[in-house]
Amino acid sequence: MKIGKFDLDSDGTFIIAELSANHGGDINIAKKTIMAAKEIGADAIKLQTYTADTLTLDSDRDDFIIKGGTLWDDKKLYDLYKEAYLPWEWHKELFDYAREVGIDIFSSPFDKSAVDFLEQFNPSAYKIASFEITDYELIRYTASKGRPIIISTGIAAIDEIQDAVDICRSEGNDDIVLLKCTSAYPAALEDANLRTIPNLAETFGVIAGFSDHTLGTTAPVVATTLGAKVIEKHFILDRSIGGADADFSLDKNEFSEMIKAVRDAEKLLGKVGYSMTEKKKRSRQFSRSLYVAKEIRKGEIFTEENIRSVRPGYGMHPKYLKDILGKTAKKDYKFGEAFEL
């Protein structure tokens, strides 16, 4: 499966820098963030395409006031989304700029009108946010466009995840990535449950990844070791920009460290292999082998005193020692000589 030019089967872990609300209401900050993501080695930058009116109602009723111990408690939903949204008139310039500097770009649509709007930019994929996984018609419409679809599973019950996958496949779209996600901002480490990542892949027959809201860079590295092929993390140039997502976003230095750690983890994982590589063969010089520990004359008996298993590894394999002991030498052997019959 490919997202743009990136092959998830062969190119490693696809790392997405989530712009979200970290543009500070300034398109120049958004463009600088895109450039920074490119410079530090992210594979893609992701936008969010909505307005306050496509997400919620401008209501003062209690249902529409945020509560529950979040960063945004006591704020009205409409006001939060109005503050955080990325203006639709910026999209063309940001898509063009990302492609100009050489980084992939796509977005999360939050309603059908956003999908229709984004189609003109030929995005490499679509991302369904975790809170939208229950919006089956949005998933159906997005999947029908035939582009890879990445779905965060943060709030979903297992039957809802199955429904989302089935809906995509019913539209003829099998390019599905499910992201393990904890929909808390920030998310506690003990709530991450990253062992779910390989289970997502196995249970639903899809590619699995991780959308991270924890603080720091440890979780994406662990997710990579568990088979995550996509990592998504909120990215901000500098937290002094402020905004709705600043507190749980990584700045340029932190995100760069995360990417390096993920790439190092990929190298460490490598592949299953027992073959004798050249490096492995060279290292065998430090292994044990059979050497003459005491001068031996022709006719003498091989004993544990005159034949020993020692370093280096240029003599016979130590496994033959038991068979050699007690036999008679057919020639002279000098001290320190690599033993051969």
Distance between the termini: 57 Å
> CATH top level of the largest domain?
Alpha Beta
Shape: elongated
**By CATH's scheme, which homologous superfamily of the largest domain applies?**
Aldolase class I
Spatial strand arrangement across the major sheet = 5-4-3-10-9-8-7-6
Q: Overall pLDDT, averaged?
A: 96
Notes on the protein architecture:
The chain has helices at 27-40, 52-55, 77-84, 91-101, 112-119, 136-143, 158-170, 196-204, 218-225, 252-269, 278-283, 321-324; strands spanning 2-3, 6-7, 14-18, 44-49, 104-109, 126-128, 149-152, 176-181, 207-212, 230-234, 289-292, 307-310. By secondary structure, the chain is α/β, with parallel strands linked by helices. The chain has two domains: 2-50 and 85-269, Aldolase class I (TIM Barrel, Alpha-Beta Barrel), CATH 3.20.20.70; 278-324, no CATH class. The protein has an eight-stranded parallel β-sheet. Helix 1 runs parallel beside helix 4 (91-101) and helix 9 (218-225) packs parallel to helix 10. It is elongated and about 105 Å long. It starts with a strand and ends in a 17-residue tail after the last helix.
Key traits:
2 domains; 8-stranded parallel beta sheet; 33% helix; two-stranded antiparallel ribbon; alpha/beta; TIM Barrel; 16% strand; 341 residues; 12 helices
Give the helices and strands, then pairings.
Blueprint: E1 2-3, E2 6-7, E3 14-18, H1 27-40, E4 44-49, H2 52-55, H3 77-84, H4 91-101, E5 104-109, H5 112-119, E6 126-128, H6 136-143, E7 149-152, H7 158-170, E8 176-181, H8 196-204, E9 207-212, H9 218-225, E10 230-234, H10 252-269, H11 278-283, E11 289-292, E12 307-310, H12 321-324
Helix pairs in contact: 1-4, 6-7, 9-10
